[in-house]
Specification:
heterodimer; A: about 170 residues; alpha/beta; TIM Barrel; seven-stranded mixed sheet; B: about 675 residues; four-stranded mixed sheet; 22 helices; globular; binds iron/sulfur cluster; binds zinc ion
Chain lengths: ~170, ~675
Amino acid sequence: MKIRVAGIEKESVVDGPGLRFVIFVQGCTRHCSGCHNPDTWDFYGGQEMDTGEILAQIGEGRLNRGVTFSGGEPFEQVAACALLAEQIKPLGMDIVTYSGYTFEELQTKSLADEDVKRLLEATDILVDGPFIAEERDWDLPFRGSRNQRLILVHESLAAGMAVQAE
Amino acid sequence: MFAKIKKRDGREVHFDDSKITDAIFKAARSVGGEDRETAMELTLGVLRMLKQQSNGQVFGVEDVQDVVEKILIEKGHAKTAKAYILYRDRRSRVRDAKGELMDVVEDIVKETDRDNANVGNSPSAKMLQIASAASRRYYLTRLIDEDYSLAHSRGDIHIHDLDFYATTCNCLQIPLEKLLKEGFNTGHGYIRPPKRPASATSLAAIILQSSQNDMFGGQSFPFFDKQIAPSMDGADEDKVYQAMEALVFNLNSMHSRAGSQVPFSSINLGTDTSEEGRGVTRNFLLAYEAGLGRGENPIFPNVIFRVKKGVSFDPQDPNYDLFQLAVRVASKRLNPTFSFMDSSFNKPYDDQVAYMGCRTRTMDNRRGPAVTTGRGNLSFTTINLPRLGIKAERNMKTFYRLLDEVTELTINQLYHRFQVQCRLKVKDLPFVMGQGMYLGSEDLKPDDSIEPAIVNGTLTVGFIGLAEMLVALTGYHHGQSKDSQQLGLEIVNYLRRKTDEACERFNLNYTLLATPAEGTCGRYVRLDRKEYGIIPGITNQEYYTNSYHIPVHFPISSFDKISLEGPYHRFCNAGHISYVEFAAPPQHNPEAVEAIIRHMAESDMGYGGINYPVDFCCNCGLQGVINEPNCPRCGSADIRRIRRITGYLSTIDRFNDGKVEELKHRLPHS
Ligand code: SF4
Ligand SMILES: [Zn+2]
């Protein structure tokens, strides 16, 4: 399956716990002011890759704890992301997904869109909500503004409400 | 025949005709001649002609050389004559160094507007630079054999810390416990054993400073936890913390190295499991983590945490909590680095191996007990491997012949320096030798030679640019090709065998070092470009790669980098280190750092560390990667940028050119 990506980072220390393989998914409609990656907005930017090719690269990163979907907006190419996430899990790796949508918004979306449900269910930690420049906090782990949350997805789905990591 | 000859400086010395023979023979050999007898016959011809010209005056060196030239040409040795003339010319160029020195002094005096000088622009710093330039010139032209001086000037080898060639030795692992127990004398009076934690650590700082005054290289406490624990007996946690905090502050503010720099200090710790020892490690790490007055990253000391299974590495180990703390601090402060006591070459010594920021490791000892404390490196000289690779033109036989030649030269030069160092007396190193710190110096008198002590030290052959050398030999470096990796290991192993053989031959501790390149990386490239031009993959960067490292501009995963560099550690018994580069501080991610450290241990590494940019806003305290000139939070331009250079941390404006260039190219591994 094809996916349009803005770039790939094979070993990151700032996109979730442990060393992580990061896929920057191309395309975002939000256009937050102060967004760190405005080059990821254009849905025709970046480059097209095959999910199989990405999966092979992930397999090489022997020290990585997991894979992070960042953006852009992973839920705009949700089918490809869900497929990848489901293929990554059997490798013993965990999934962190960044989204400009909140957990609650995604829950609602998942009722109508099976792929959203799949990606959500495959995700271990969701970093949710748009970046808001006024809420900027330099000392937060793995996120840029105070409104964004680290959500433990499995616990949250079981509880039917957002459960945060700390 | 002639009793005396007049040297260029006007002194008259004993006339020795064998020197003429030597010079002729040397010239002849350089063009393929093998026959010393011919050289002797020619010498007779020279003497005869001199006699004809003589009216009882004392000949000058130049007069004699003129006659040698004439005789060589007259007797039909045109090639040898040409070599001889070239040799004379080179010599006179070495002598012109005097004029060159004056130019250097002029530059130092003139350069007042450098905004990033190495030690600053203060009057005393400039005077030191002049003294250093003059010392270097003096040693190269007067004290060191021409073969070695020329090899150094050409860039075949690099004699490190040349400006201290005859005046002292490199570095020391300090017997802190002994000094604290018995007291000591700094030369300004006797200092009693300390009673409180704070006085113990302030004495520790004074000790580092005093021994730094006697030596040019790093000063280290090999077992800081164990060594200072007795002084912490019964003290509460607060007192111990304050003592450690004071030590960190002290080591970042006192000046002593060469009179103008902060001492290059290192602290090894982590395996003392006593309550006091654990208190030392814990509080030292916490104080280091808290940083300096405004929370800035400390520059000194270099901190080395010992990793050992059964002691500090696994969850059930008594010091596992300290290892976790060390990882957390390393995720934020670049220090500690980690030394691995379970690697194949360190394991035989239990937990007794210590390192320094300069990566020096001193362990085996054929002249005394194999211990760390009270010993260090005496001096080291580094081989320019890429040049050998270029010269060999892909012929391995030629390569090994060239390698043999330069290694032999290096080994002999180190021996020369050792002999010069043996002329030093105990009173020349009043603290290090006078206070009995150096192993074997305990019973020496002030006027005794330091030889019985320094036979315990190491004489060290280093190398840089394995990667570029491999490119020259095969077209690929060891990150690019398995065959190159195989060849790299073979060559480094070969170098190690050479230094082991030298141990037997000289009965001294010769060792092999993975040189931290210092300024040498840039200097070699400049010299090789002049000679061979810009060759892709070899001389096209502004610097050669450190020791056996994978080139910093080559994209590679941490996993692969560690796996490839690991096997070199065991050959480099004088010291080694490998680093992993992160693009950003892993501040909130100690887990990532631990994964790296564990893979280093699995790859049989002896010593490793994590690098990442540390930018700190001195106004608001923001720490992270600040790519813009101003702080993105408060707008202040007062940004302190810290990076690791040759093992020690440094603020970025103090890097020399070669290093800045390297930093620009450093790729995070991915
Ligand atoms: S959601 Fe993320 S990628 Fe999209 S504009 Fe906002 S910050 Fe940028
Ligand atoms: Zn600021």
